[in-house]
Design a protein that fits this description.
- This protein is mostly helical.
- 77% of the residues lie in helices and 0% in strands.
- It has four helices and no strands.
């Protein structure tokens, strides 16, 4: 999981591209969930919702937050 986190964070450090950034953040959140780091997953998924609110990936992030017990 550490390699996945490192690669995703490196991709997010590249010049901004809203569409891909939302997807990368979402995948990073899912990696954190699989890794058992639910608090970090909530933070990253909330960023997707906050920064990319009108996208389909934000809806998936919202659903994942609800599944994690986020209100």
């Amino acid at each position: 999981f550490q390699d996945s986190e490192r690669v995703l964070r490196s991709a997010l450090a590249l010049p901004a591209n809203g569409h891909f950034d939302a997807k990368l953040l979402y995948v990073l959140g899912k990696v954190y969930i699989a890794w058992g780091r639910r608090d970090q997953a909530r933070v990253v998924l909330q960023q997707v919702v906050d920064l990319h609110a009108q996208t389909q990936i934000a809806e998936k992030a919202r659903e994942t937050l609800v599944a994690l017990g986020h209100k």
